[in-house]
Specification:
Layout (H helix, E strand, L loop, with lengths): L2 H16 L12 E6 L2 E7 L8 H8 L10 E6 L11 H8 L3 E6 L9 H8 L3 E3 L4 H7 L1 H9 L3 E9 L16 H13 L2 E5 H7 L14 E5 L18 E5 L4 E3 L4 E5 L5 H11 L4 E6 L1 H9 L5 E7 L19 E5 L2 E7 L6
């Protein structure tokens, strides 16, 4: 089988895995394809945490199980070798006795970390690794960042006018158009959590939900050191869990899905990252306001950033957008809005 064929099937694994973005936390995104004599006979992906993994879903999709021992299984991430909410996938592949297993990226999580590959090789199964490795690592950049750097993957996002303002007269102002608003809500579905500061909560009274689309709402994180945001604010409703990160109170309100998380004043961002890591939050979309965004930018604590620009809108007064002296990796056009996309390559896993 040629290298090109391996890459082609692995691309399909990545495509399948991406269908579940936003639904698998705290598990990684994984896609799987089963090939017999040059023909795909089974496909699957991990759809939701606690449910069957990609390999099992692909195996179950095969109409003729008798073909499995003579087939090659492609999977975007090393099969697990430990018991969790589901049995280890590597053991299932061993029991079937696949002829060959092709793996995109290795899983360096301490519970896996080569154990899945070792189990397959001990069973006499040929194992090939590193096919589209960078692409498979990028697919799970949130998962890898979380486990390797002991912090969530950080994404910054804001909208600004043609002259670099985020609002008019310091009041909530619509800058993006309808397509860009839906784009933002899709982003909210894909990320584990969303964060704003107290001033934004007081000024805008946001919901921070993905109500424009059908998908899971992110966990809401409110940075409110002195607990200034009143309890009737929308962030304290029951639409999604909310973490109120502060310097005064540690308390859990299970009835309303609100948790008060106390951190020390010194090294606030470091302490925030530790608190979110302890709660297994793998990615955070930072939506503002300007002061909160600038704190992350100044600390170099970001992995991706998205700036929505409206070239035809000029605002005469209001909050200036953060200074962001970086070049976008690429741009997207949504009617009269431009989205600049950035990656912090110094943090790339």
């Amino acid at each position: 089988m040629t290298r090109l064929s391996h890459e082609s099937y692995m691309k399909r694994c990545i495509e399948l895995a991406g269908k579940a973005l936003g639904y698998t936390y705290p598990n990684p995104l994984v896609g799987c394809v089963i090939v017999h004599e040059g023909r795909i006979i089974g496909e699957g992906f991990h759809q939701k945490a606690g449910e069957a993994h990609a390999e099992i879903n692909a195996i179950r999709s095969v109409k003729n199980p008798n073909l499995l021992p003579e087939s090659t299984l492609y999977v975007s991430l090393e099969p697990c070798a430990h018991y969790g909410k589901t049995p280890p996938c590597a053991l299932a592949l061993k029991e079937i006795g696949f002829k060959k297993v092709v793996i995109g990226a290795l899983d360096h999580h301490e519970k896996v970390n080569g154990k899945g590959i070792a189990l397959l090789k001990e069973a006499g199964i040929e194992v090939l690794t590193g096919v589209l490795e960078k692409e498979c690592q990028h697919l799970n950049r949130r998962f890898f960042t979380f486990h390797q750097k002991k912090r969530p993957y950080i994404i910054l996002k804001w909208a600004q006018s043609a002259n670099g303002r985020m609002d008019e007269n310091f009041a909530p102002t619509a800058i993006g158009n309808a397509p860009s608003k839906q784009w933002v809500h899709q982003l909210r579905i894909e990320e584990n959590a969303i964060l704003v500061g107290a001033q934004t909560a007081l000024n805008d009274n946001p919901r921070l939900t993905a109500r424009e689309l059908n998908g899971p709402n992110p966990i809401r994180i409110l940075l409110d050191p002195d607990l200034r945001v009143p309890p009737h604010s929308r962030l304290f409703d029951n639409e999604a869990p909310t973490l109120i990160v502060n310097h005064k109170l540690e308390k859990e309100d299970q009835a309303n899905q609100n948790t008060f998380v106390k951190i020390e004043k010194e090294n606030t961002l470091d302490n925030l990252m530790k608190a979110l890591y302890q709660r297994e939050i793998q990615s955070v979309l930072v939506e503002g306001g300007a002061n909160t965004l600038e704190r992350f930018i100044s600390a170099g604590l970001w992995d991706e950033a998205f700036i929505i620009k409206n070239p035809s809108l000029v605002l005469q007064s209001g909050t200036f957008a953060p200074s962001f002296p970086h070049r976008p990796s690429h741009t997207e056009n949504l009617e009269n809005n431009l989205i600049e996309c950035y990656r912090n390559l110094t943090h790339a896993v």
